[in-house]
Design goal:
The structure holds two protein chains of two kinds.
Chain A (H helix, E strand, L loop, with lengths): L2 E6 L8 E6 L2 E8 L2 E6 L13 E7 L12 E10 L6 E3 L4 E2 L2 E5 L4 E5 L2 E5 L1
Antiparallel strand pairs in A: 1-11, 2-3, 3-4, 5-6, 6-7, 8-9, 10-11
Chain B lengths: L9 E2 L11 H4 L1 H9 L8 E6 L6 H4 L6 H13 L40 H13 L3 E5 L12 H18 L7 E6 L5 H11 L5 E7 L12 H10 L3 E4 L15 H22 L2 H4 L5 E4 L5 H15 L11 H7 L1 E4 L8 H10 L2 H4 E2 L13 H4 L6 H16 L18
Parallel strand pairs in B: 2-3, 3-4, 4-5, 5-6, 6-7, 7-8, 8-9
Helix pairs in contact in B: 7-8
Classes of the chains: A mainly beta, B alpha/beta.
The structure holds FE2/S2 (inorganic) cluster (FES).
């Protein structure tokens, strides 16, 4: 495993991302609700560039007591990255597909040392 | 000597993919995948890809032959504000394709193209071919796929002819790696014959397309001269699927996902049923049909339905000498995309039932939201190498009479640095 310097901790803002090349691998580093998460930039579907996708809040559809629905909603807490190739979504904190948790991104190891973010791949 | 300097990760040029992203950047992972799998040395033909002809609609309408319609169309294209392109009916589902912008390449491709020596669509198609690893690409239009539902059958003729003449001039003439299955104005059979006779002999025309979204019985006697001419030419006829959300049964489906899943299959199931039960393969045994963009899972379903019913009611399909599934397996070809891969055993069974080794052809459907990669075929655990090579290119080479020398440039297909 090789350790790569990604950026300074200060440079990754809340909801910020940096997708980087580490040798022949690519990793996306995100800050979500204060936490750093690093994912390999390979979608579980067909290895698409998932970390370069758009970020959306998870879509929910609340059901009323009587079983009816009226409006959809965006989750306050669950943030998804959407693979730009075919639209698979993944929770940025768990790496799991919201519709099937067995489909997941591969987490890359990261460390923050002396104000710098590193990944190990 | 071991260096203890920590290497720096290099930020990618495209941090977030958008409608402005270069196709080569967007498909870089595909190019790398293809290199890893040695596809540089495999002949690959992508039997179904698309361009967005409406981007060039101002040019296309100049090719309308009727002088009055041409003038009207050109004026409209020059002066309209906001209205859809002249003569196209489209479908309201087109607005939902990108899942609210989640899949940007489905919304638009506004990437930079410096080369002005060829039409922009030629450059985009070359970029896609070299990134997917395709030696040839058969390119279809997009909103025109709905034209069979236009209330004016004349419009289908005017636009089919204009588009064909334009595409010959601007796209096909520029690169012989790009081929077409020309659009037949199927609501008017005599005009289909005219199209076959006028354009069928051209080298870039590898066959003919019926856009499947239409309410026409493919077995009607009026079509027999069309099939006879096509059979004579030795080129195939393709049924390219699409949806029609306003079809009464589909209009009860409120999610695009459901409408799309059903619609793209339903039209071809109906046409295939008529095609087989009316014995078209018996009447035109050398006419090859290709069933495009319905995926594959419907084929075993329909084979089983028709076979079972046929044995009980043979007198209703007196032309058949074999089981419906025999015709579907021996006389019909299929394109892969969108290949249903979530149930592996079912997929393996499907390959066996359709005799994929000889009848199946790879298609990407690039740049649509459910496009497929060649690696979906190379990675299938249940196929031998020869079957994979056939599906990726050799079956198409045989059917379209294409030379199998390798034309792509996978290694040099990425975005130049700098
Ligand atoms: S590769 Fe990511 S959604 Fe298909």
């Amino acid at each position: 495993m090789t350790e790569y310097y990604v950026c300074d901790d200060d440079d990754l803002a809340e909801m910020g991302r940096l997708v980087v090349e580490c040798g022949d691998k690519q990793v996306g580093v995100f800050r979500v609700q204060g936490e750093i998460h690093a994912w390999f930039n390979r979608c579980a579907h067909m290895r698409g560039p998932v970390c370069q996708g758009r970020i959306y809040r998870r879509v929910l559809e609340p059901v009323a007591e009587d079983g009816t629905v009226r409006m959809m909603q965006q989750s306050e807490t669950e943030i998804n990255i959407v693979c730009p190739w075919h639209g698979y979504e993944y929770d940025l904190k768990t790496g799991r597909h919201p519709g099937n948790p067995r489909i997941a991104l591969r987490r890359a190891e990261h460390v923050v040392r002396e104000g710098k973010i590193y990944v190990r791949v | 000597m071991k260096s203890d300097v920590t290497p720096r990760a290099i930020p990618l040029r495209e941090q977030e993919i958008s409608i402005f992203t270069d196709t080569r950047d967007l498909l870089e992972h595909s190019r790398r995948d293809a290199m890893k799998r040695g596809l540089q040395d495999w002949f690959v033909c992508d039997v179904d890809a698309h361009h967005v002809e409406t981007v060039s609609w101002k040019e296309v309408v100049q090719y309308i032959e009727d002088p009055v319609v041409r003038e009207n169309a050109m004026n409209y294209q020059q002066q309209r504000i906001g209205a859809p392109p002249y003569g196209l009916n489209g479908d309201l589902g087109l607005r939902y394709q990108s899942v609210g912008g989640r899949i940007p390449h489905q919304d638009d491709q506004r990437e930079k193209v410096e080369d002005t020596s060829v039409h922009r669509d030629v450059t985009l198609t070359r970029r896609a071919m070299n990134s997917l690893g395709a030696d040839y690409m058969i390119v279809f239009p997009t909103p025109m796929l709905f034209l069979g539902m236009h209330p004016q059958p004349e419009m289908e003729i005017w636009l089919a002819r204009a588009y064909t003449r334009w595409t010959m001039d601007k796209i096909m003439a520029a690169d012989d790696r790009i081929k077409t299955l020309i659009y037949l104005p199927f609501n008017t059979p005599s005009e289909c014959v005219r199209m076959v006779e006028e354009f069928g002999h051209l080298k870039s025309v590898v066959g003919f397309t019926v856009t499947s979204t239409r309410y026409k019985p493919v077995h009607h006697n009026d079509y027999m001269p069309v099939y006879a001419r096509i059979e004579e030419l030795g080129k195939p006829i393709a049924f390219h699927a699409g949806y029609h959300w306003q079809d009464q049964s589909l209009a009860t489906v409120n999610r695009f996902l459901g409408m799309h899943a059903l619609g793209f299959v339903w039209c071809n199931m109906v046409h295939m049923t008529n095609w087989i039960l009316n014995g078209i393969p018996e009447r035109f045994p050398r006419l090859n049909s290709i069933w495009v963009e319905s995926g594959l899972a419907w084929v075993p379903f329909l084979m089983q339905r028709l076979d079972d019913q046929y044995l009980m009611r043979q007198s209703e399909a007196p032309q058949l000498k074999r089981m419906p599934s025999d015709y579907m397996r021996e006389n019909c070809f299929y394109t892969t995309q969108p290949m249903e891969v979530t149930h592996k055993k079912a997929l393996e069974n499907t390959f066996e039932m359709i005799n994929a080794k000889t009848q199946l052809m790879y298609s990407s459907d690039w740049p649509h939201f459910d496009f497929d990669l060649p690696s979906m075929i190379t990675d299938l655990p249940f196929l031998d190498e020869q079957s994979k090579r056939n599906i990726l290119g050799l079956n198409a080479a045989r059917l379209f009479n294409l030379p199998t020398d390798l034309r792509k440039d996978l290694a040099g297909g990425g975005v130049p640095l700098g």
